[in-house]
Amino acid sequence: MPDQSLGFLLHDATRLIRRRFEARANEFGLTTAQWRLLVYLKKEGALAQARLAELLEIEPISVSRLVDRMEEADWVCRKADPNDRRVKLVHPSVKARNAFEDARSIADDIYEQALAGLSDDEIATALNTLRQIIRNLSEDTSSTSETHHE
């Protein structure tokens, strides 16, 4: 049954989380993509658009447009990289830093709703399972696909 496969279940869960976040974060004017970009800036500090494209797994032109919109809305600003003047680094604005905790609180509320009815052990198992899936799919497939004959 396709709607019960791992891929469909993960996609549906992600879609529902994203919808809930966007509905609540709308008061800040943040989309999920913008929120993810701000999270990376919060974790990593100022980043070049090329690095943001890698982290967000979207095309550089899409990141450029996303940053343009966020800059217009005063969520981020671009500044020259002090080590390479050809590169512009994306920095969170004061507005972004001030709104970050509110947005984080919205995300935490949604995760709490998503995990309602699960015990701490079930939550730990689910998170560990997802981490293992990510590790399995992040490994170099060329080394795992080789067969060894004696």
Automatic annotation (TrEMBL):
Keywords from the UniProt entry:
DNA-binding, Transcription, Transcription regulation
Its domain of life reads: Bacteria
Matching InterPro entries: HTH_MarR-typ, MarR/SlyA-like, Tscrpt_reg_MarR-type_CS, WH-like_DNA-bd_sf, WH_DNA-bd_sf
Q: Which Pfam families match?
A: MarR (PF01047)
Q: Enumerate the SUPFAM superfamilies for this protein.
A: Winged helix' DNA-binding domain (SSF46785)
What residue stretches are annotated with the HTH marR-type domain? 3-135
The answer to keyword Transcription applying to this record is: yes
Q: What is this protein called?
A: MarR family transcriptional regulator
Natural source organism:
Thioclava nitratireducens
